[in-house]
Amino acid sequence: MKYVLGVDLGTSGTKTVLFDQEGHGICSCTVEYPMYQPQNGWAEQDPQDWANAAVTTIRTVLEKSGVDREDVVSLGISGQMHGLVMLDEQGQVLRRSIIWCDQRTQAECDEIHARVGREKLIAITANPALTGFTLSKVLWVRNHEPEIYAKCRHILLPKDYVRYVLTGDYATEVSDASGMQMLDVPNRCWSDELLGILDIDRSLLAKVYESCEVTGHISEQAAALTGLSPKTLVVGGAGDNAAAAVGTGVVEDGKAFTTIGTSGVVFAHTDKLAIDPQGRVHTFCCAVPGAWHVMGVTQAAGLSLKWYRDTFCDAEKQAAQQMGVDPYDLMNKEAAQSPIGANKLIYAPYLMGERTPHLDADCRGMFFGLSAMHTRRDLLRAVMEGVSYSLRDCLGVLNEMGVAPEQMLACGGGGKSPLWRQMLADVFNCPVATTVNTEGPALGVAILAGVGAGLYSSVPEACRAMIHVNPAQQPIAENVPQYAKVYEVFRKLYPANRDIFKALGQL
After folding, report:
1. Of 240, 276, 393, 426, which residue is the catalytic one?
2. Which of 195, 249, 289, 395 fits 467 for a cystine, CB–CB 3.0-4.6 Å?
């Protein structure tokens, strides 16, 4: 039996999972690390923490599993996207990484649009300039820390820094590089035109591979630290969402997944390049060679339910503790007792502004239609429905672009709720299923590692062998038109309040 490793470098910690070639998780280990916020809106992490966590988790799973290191043929890394790692000539880290959720770069985004032009930028990179992307972080360092920028010889993403530590190679791959906003997404290569306009030296950027291509192998030094064999191959890997797509089998046309984590994502595979000229959704190269993915984002999906739980559900939290169950289980039972439409109560989930489809940092959440008849269970159901309608907004933009999935997988904490999954099936009017293995990104990059090692001939073939799906929840015919009526009212809330949101923000 051959084995593959999936290393998932997240924001709160790194999780490494050892899989056999049939996709069964053999052993896993997670190591957490801090995030630094030196100023309001800033977010940084120390790349050495990622490297230490990767080494520790790899060594631990090998030791605990008892698997012979020579049987671990390949390794893939999934990573939090967009983080900026800057190295000097000796490969030493120059400053802490500015990570994906940092918001300091609005002026640099304005600079990019002014110098490149918004339409040209979207045509090249498939996305408008956003504070989360790597390019604006590069310009921020150049504008505010010129002495560090002058020493910089290599720019890497978080997972690619860990790759460098494990292999000594400066490499990246198309899915994660798409989120740097320096890649020509249609042509899957660095954009010399864009780099020229912004005066960025291309030699700073790593070589770009496809996600399942071999980029190198474990170095002798890393082998001594991790316990891996120097023969173990390392493949391109993928950004976290692209890795999750592979880990759920969303690697062919007609397939998509919805994640309800802190934020919410509707992610669809497409073999044909599709770019929204308004920039409401992200188009990136996906982990399947020659294909792309389109992704809409709801900022406060699971966050909305967590906010409701922490603000209004002390009784459920206390009862759950006494019963030894999850508070969300009790909340689901309550929400199920309220009818579709929550007795004419609608929730807009704009707690953190919104990305898809509004691109509006000023919009805010609301309960609309509140009356004296409403109970907590109505508010709770309205929150779950409102998030579902917002995700339906994302799906609507994808449909406009000709990306119309026929099958939906549900992931994340919210995806574990049968009630919420049924809600999605009815609101989307399509079947919603879950995978048996819930490792997601770690399994995704392990699958890519298996392809790179030659265990499988293609990513779709590997997914068919390594991913197992539970029976789907089908839309309930009588529910679909009921949700559709409420959704039509929901869609009118944002345009009716757009100017009021601006006025509120200026108070």
Report:
1. 240
2. 249
